[in-house]
Amino acid sequence: MAEESDADKSEAASGRKIDQAREQGNVPRSKELSSFLVLIVGVATLWIMSGWMYQRLGGVMRQGFSLTREQAFEPNMMGKALLELFSNGMITLAPLLIIIMIAGVASHIVLGGFVISGEVFKFDLTRMDPVKGMKRFVSITGLVELVKGVFKSVFILGVAGYLVWRYRFEMLGLMGMPLNVGLQRFAEMLMIAAFALSSSLALIAAMDVPYQIWHYFKELRMTKQEQKDENKESEGDPQVKGKIRQRQQEMARRRMMEAVPKADVVVTNPTHFAVALKYESGKMGAPTVVAKGADFLAQTIRELAKENNVPLLESPPLARALFHHAKVDQQIPAALYTAVAEVMAYIYQLNQFIAEGGLPPQAPGIIGVPEGMDPGVETPPTLH
């Protein structure tokens, strides 16, 4: 079942899943990289500070082997002397320990970044499950770690064996050297050996880091179903979103139907499109589209306009242009100002005729729209 589950995980991890893993403290780590950085930094620090540390530790040793009469006969003085020796030794070693500690922390940040998570410290009995532990041991990951450990041990032992063979005669010759010279040469050989071992760890880390990154993202891979479920959680259920969209459209239609009786004019196609316009001088910078629709909705707008004595003006080019380029509750595009101004002037004259009488205004002729605004063919307008 585990193999089938792993085979089903064919999709790359999403950004959300990677973020969740980081929040739980799950980031790529390489023990080999950490070992290499700690060792190389420690060796380099010893190399740089060797002279100062030699003098300090030499002084501590001389102080430790020096015993005054008061210290020999006074137990309290002996305790103070031991405390002073311990303090001097720790002061000498403190820079090295602090630098190694910083290197240890930095070695984890280099690959996985700086992460603080309380999940790591939570008590979890499943971590102590011997069955799961055995499964991890016999898994492919456990096998890879075993092979890597064997290779590392053999490789480092090989390097160490080569160094011993390389300096075998010099090490035997140390016995015939004066103590100071012999100790200095032995320290030099130790530093060379430490750098050589560090270099061998660098090669192992260079192979381990790409593997750990690959393995990390492999473990986070998702099945297609997990990806779908995550999309639903982040973007919402498509059915729910569809219902919300349908509800919003219904509310928008209701608002439009409520605005049609207050419109100044409805420009029609005459059958396919209907656009209701309203203009209030001093409140609006330009006429505003309060409702628009096509086919059945256009018919509903026309019928509602007739019931409320709102003038209808058939002008297919203008109706098509307004329908395609104007938005509800927004002013008409600037390119249609001239065409709509001709319509509004006629409506103003019509309202005066209805209120005061006199000669009826003549309906505008063909209302042209700028090139590119009308997707159809012009036809002469008529008034209803």
UniProtKB/TrEMBL annotation:
It comes from the Bacteria. The keyword Plastid does not apply. It holds the Pfam family Bac_export_2. Gene3D superfamilies: secretion proteins EscU (3.40.1690.10). Residues 7-22, 227-240 have a biased composition (Basic and acidic residues). It is a multi-pass membrane protein. InterPro entries: FlhB, T3SS_substrate_exporter, T3SS_substrate_exporter_C. The chain crosses the membrane at residues 36-54, 93-116, 137-165, 185-206. Residues 1-26, 227-248 are annotated as: Disordered. Keywords: Bacterial flagellum biogenesis, Bacterial flagellum protein export, Cell membrane, Cell projection, Cilium, Flagellum, Membrane, Protein transport, Transmembrane, Transmembrane helix, Transport. Coiled coil: none annotated. It is found in: Cell membrane. Required for formation of the rod structure in the basal body of the flagellar apparatus. Together with FliI and FliH, may constitute the export apparatus of flagellin. Belongs to the type III secretion exporter family. This is Flagellar biosynthetic protein FlhB. The lineage of its organism: Bacteria, Pseudomonadati, Pseudomonadota, Betaproteobacteria, Rhodocyclales.
